[in-house]
Amino acid sequence: MAMDEGNDDLNKGIYVSSRGFDAGASQKGNGTAATNGEDTSKDGDDASKDHAQISLLTMFRYATQLDVLLIVIGSLWSAAHGAGWPVLAVVFGAMTDTFIDVGDFNITNDSIPDGALTAEDFQTQMNQYALYYVYIGLGMFVASYFQVI
């Protein structure tokens, strides 16, 4: 058995073309499927064909009511998961405002200007923001779990 004859089995598989799939076909020529190892394409006609456009209703014509319900529920959970990122941006913006507020506090001088945060207030607010991040993360985790179920 020659070395090239053994590699012929590696070239067999399932190839999908515009005419459907062919199990056990070998790939020759420009990538079209052939059952007997010959190139069956006609000057690249398959590559120039456009795929047929179908409507959304045609795509779901075999879906049951349960399938449609699960798709709608998954889409709602997906929207909830996607809404977590803007919420994180808002919380991060509020947290950076807190850094600015504490920056107005002068440690060398015992006077606290109006609107400046003390160290204790700053720590309390940072703890609150940390909890916000945890809650948003948990909410996004739950939403991502339910969007794929």
From TrEMBL:
It comes from the Eukaryota. SUPFAM superfamilies: ABC transporter transmembrane region. Residues 21-47 are annotated as: Disordered. Residues 27-38 have a biased composition (Polar residues). InterPro entries: ABC1_TM_sf (IPR036640). Keywords: Membrane, Transmembrane, Transmembrane helix. The chain crosses the membrane at residues 68-95, 130-148. This is Multidrug resistance protein 1-like. It comes from Priapulus caudatus (Priapulid worm).
